[in-house]
Amino acid sequence: MESLSQKSWETGLPNRDSQIEFLDDILLVDVLVIDDDHDSRAAIAEMLDGEGYAVAVAGDGQEALDLVGAGLRPRLLMTDLRMPVIDGWQLLAIRSAHHVLSEVPVLVVTGEAERPLFRRGVCGVVEKPIDVEKVLALVKETLAPTTRAERA
User: Fold this and answer.
1) For residues 46 and 75, is the Cβ–Cβ distance under 8 A?
2) Which domains occur in the chain, in start order?
3) Is the peptide bond before 116 cis (omega within 30 degrees of 0)?
């Protein structure tokens, strides 16, 4: 598997050559980007990586849960709503009772923001096509002041 430092942005756990911090078998990342569209996922991941955030990616909610089950610990979830297997709505419902994710803030990046998201623990919504400045501002506000660069 390629490491995230090679910017493949394929789903799955990064190897130990990546820029993600490891603590024993726990992988610490700033943002887990969850989107079934490879191009959207890659664009968001590249943008965040370029700003100094440690990023992991998943193609749907099930892959995200599998990554967390394998030791990934994100500080923020950024998820699309319409995805196969486990969609964003289902992921939000699972997250609320999940032993690892229940306290992790969520930003929704979607083309369908008509349902009441804030009652589901969502701290922000970005409509597609994304506004880069809005995404970066929301991520910075949510994670401030502990980005990877500031911890170094």
Assistant:
1) no
2) 4-151 (3.40.50.2300)
3) no
